[in-house]
Every structure is written in structure tokens, then in C-alpha cells.
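Quick note —
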Amino acid sequence: MSEFKSVKVKKGASGWGQYIIVTPTEKRNKVISVTGGGIHPTAVRIAELSGGLAVDGFANHPNNDEVFCAVVDCGGTLRTGLYPKQGIPTVNILNGGPAGPMAEFCTEDMYVSGSKPDDCSMADPNDTPVTAAKEDGDSEKEAPAAAETEGKRKGVLGFLTFIMSKLGRGIGKIVNLFFDGAREAVNMMIRNVIPFMVFISFMIGLMTSTGFGEWIANGLAVFTNTVGGLIIFALIIAIPVLAPLLAPGAAIQSILGTLIGALIAAGQVSPSLALPALFAISVVDAADFIPVAAALGEAKPETSRVAVPAMLISRFITAPICVLVGWVAGIGLF
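Predicted structure written out below.
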């Protein structure tokens, strides 16, 4: 029987959180690395210290009930909170706090970011797990139902009281439902939409004010000015080894989309190429998410091993088809 030990993983210098303590067991003895470039050194370090086994989430995705720690490189999309939601402590090698549609599950006892191998050490017996941050109202105990001190009212007055009570409770539930929805919408705007808008504004300002966009435009002219160039461009970024490295956080797609949009606005690229350019950029979307999707679908490890290369190769094959479909669909739009 292997001797497993607890490992303390601290946040990086510019990361989020405090630290998490991970401990493998006989059943949960794997550190999964879903980073698109083999097994990350941070995952290797956690495995060495804990006595667990580091596995490549792309080449050999295990079942989630075999994983005691996940190492990801998510820029703020689904993977950030996916594993914490399933009760698996997560280490994000990129800097960044909770983000994406599952950000609420990235509590301080389940998630840290910016961590490097040097941030991993043996847990001290005096180390206590960080308590999960509680949402407003979680700490409040539900008040016991008050006992009735009066007998039920009878007659017309009792009936009206009953109707008004039911109506009031129903309206209260509807108001709370809308209030919760509004709060989640605002949180989503603050965490995801507004930072993205600021990023896009910064990129446009940088390219237009420094002339960097014009310099890049000259280098990419061979790709962006013709449909054939866009096909070559899509094939390059869809190379199976390259696509998982370009996909995390959709950062590369955002930069390329902003760049091409600025070139179209400047008149250096024809607007008729906007749609095929979008299709060319999107060929790497979710290329880093394939093993996670297989796990969500409860695929067997053997299926995941086959699915990852199959999906990446199929993306490479269909990349020029996507560009051509976009080109045909864009005929007559401009």
C-alpha cells in the first residue's frame, strides 16, 4: 500500500486565493494535468510530494472519482470552476480569480491560481484547511417556524387572511427570484463581460495609436486578404499539437479577432472576409476542453484517449471547410 501524504499548494505571486491542502487516497490517487502541453511541472511536483500519480488529461483522462487534485491552465472560462464544482481541489497555473459560469464554486478551500512547482510543499500538521467563503445569508440559520399562538381564524375573515398570506408569499418568491437573477447577471457582467470589454478597448487603442496594428497587418496581409490565405491560416493554428496551446481562455482568438476587425475598419481587409475570418479563428475553440468534455460525458478512459486525437485531427481536416462555408455564407452580405 502506498504511503500518501498531504501537500500544501500556495497561490502564486500574482495569483488568487491563499492555499489548498490536497491528500490522495487509495481510490483518489491521481493528479490530473489538463494544460494542453503534457504533464505540467506543478502537477509533477504535487505527485512527487504526495505519493500520487500525475496523469496527462489529454492523453489519458481518468474518471473524476480517481482524481484528488486538478492542474489547469484556464484563462477564466469553464474549467476554472468545473473541477471545484465536483469537489476536486484545483490549481490554475495562470493568474486569475474566480471567473466563468462556475465561478461560485472557486472558493478559497478549493482553488488557487498562479501556482508554480516552488509553491508546493509538504503540509505541516498545524496547517488547517482554509474555510470556504460563505455567500451572504449562508451563515444565518433558518429560523424555526413560529408556533401559532392563536387559533385559526374562521369564516370570511379567515378565508381572506389565508388568500392574502398565500398571495404575499407567492409575490415574495417571485421578487426573490428576480433579485437573485439580477444579482447573478451583475456578477457575470463585473467578472467577465466588463473585463473583456476593457481588454478589447485596450487592444484596439494599442494597435491604432502605436502603429502596431499596421505593422502586424503587413505581416498578415498574405493570410487576411484572400480566402486561400485564411485557409492556410486556419490550417496553421489547427495543427493538433498547437491547437490545445492556443485555446485556453480564448485569449489568442480575442487578439486575432480584434486585429482583423481593426484591419477591416481601417479598410485594409475587405468586409466580405469578416465571416470566413471568424470561422478561421474559431477552429481552435475548446481544443483544450476535449478531455474535460469526455469526462463530463462519463466517457471511459480508453474513450478519452481516442477522443482527444480524433477531435483534434478532425478539426484540422475541417478547418478549410469551415473557412469555405463562411465565405459562401458571406456572399452578398457586404
